[in-house]
Amino acid sequence: MSEAEGGSQGMNVEDLETGEPVRELLNLEYDTSPVFLTGVRRKIHRRVATAHVASFSWNLPKAILLELIRLLGHSFGALGDTKGTRK
Question: What are the residue boundaries of the structural domains of the chain, listed by start?
Answer without folding.
Answer: 32-81
